[in-house]
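Severity: low
Component: inverse-folding endpoint
Summary: output formatting inconsistent between runs
Steps to reproduce: submit the following structure tokens with default settings.
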């Protein structure tokens, strides 16, 4: 993977794999792309909202549509751009500072971690990341995002 890049803003693309909150003063998010990391001043929530708007809708509109059509009430997957099959799901409640966002199309598979409160996401580019979310919760989030993809694609 190439050296990290620092940017002021960011829009999700098909190369985006995950968005993590950064615990740094200089930037708000760490973006994992297929071939690089990007440090962004915006928070994960700001990136999700800006990306929805970039692709023609508001975050609130996308969220309400998922609630209306699928009945999900918490940790709602968001169709950033259904025409490009860009769907993200949160790992935690949006009020939790540790909430990361994972791009569904980049996941190769998920795996249980020896620590039952964690799990491992294996991405298509052979990278992997350990998340502070149980395997059962992660599996549910992946499945819900698949359902969202079927409904909105």
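Observed output (run 2 of 3):
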């Amino acid at each position: 993977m190439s050296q990290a890049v620092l940017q002021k803003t960011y829009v999700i693309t098909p190369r985006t794999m995950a968005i993590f909150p950064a615990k740094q003063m200089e930037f708000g998010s760490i973006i994992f792309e297929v071939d690089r990391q990007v440090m962004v001043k915006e928070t994960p929530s700001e990136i999700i909202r800006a990306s929805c708007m970039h692709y023609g809708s508001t975050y609130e509109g996308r969220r309400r549509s998922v609630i209306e059509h699928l009945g999900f009430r918490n940790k709602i997957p968001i169709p950033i751009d259904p025409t490009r099959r860009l769907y993200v799901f949160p790992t935690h409640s949006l009020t939790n500072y540790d909430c990361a966002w994972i791009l569904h199309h980049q996941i190769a598979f998920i795996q249980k971690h020896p620590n039952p409160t964690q799990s491992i996401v294996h991405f298509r580019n052979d990278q992997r990341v350990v998340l502070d979310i149980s395997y059962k919760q992660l599996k549910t989030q992946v499945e819900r995002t698949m359902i969202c993809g079927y409904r909105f694609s």
